[in-house]
Specification:
The chain is an alpha+beta fold. It is about 25% helix and about 15% strand. A five-stranded mixed sheet has the order 1-2-3-4-5. A hairpin with a 5-residue loop joins strand 4 and strand 5.
Amino acid sequence: MAYQPYPYPGYQPGYYTPAVPDQLALLRQNQQLQNFQQPLPPQTPAQVAQQPVSGPSQNNGIIWVSGKGEADGYLVAPNSAVALWDANNPVIYLRQADSTGKPSTKVYDLVERTDTPVPQQTVPQVDFTQFVTWDKLDEVLAERLKKPVRVPKAKEDTDNA
């Protein structure tokens, strides 16, 4: 039997196989390569302003999408989350995936916060001078209809002591 310097057949020192990337990493890598390999033709500023944003693009770590449909289609790895900014509306989509890889999307509206507090709405005060008592109403009706004025009844004593 021949002496083998390494215990496993086919083993070579210094030979390293990198980890196999998952499907999401491959898709993102291919997308970056496609974006890198397709140079854009020179454009005037007017042409740039007229073009709508299509597809998710990254700018300083911000991922821009053009609507909820595109945000719902964005791939997210299990146990991770990503914030997607809408390029057309003041909205942020939070795209998450649980440990099984099931994705969900939460929608947050951007609202400006001001330093001055919002004034509390005050309850309008009731002006009781605009109301009429029953006695005054009876007097006015009696004058108009020429009927006798109703006299309030005296309270009867209910104590039998």
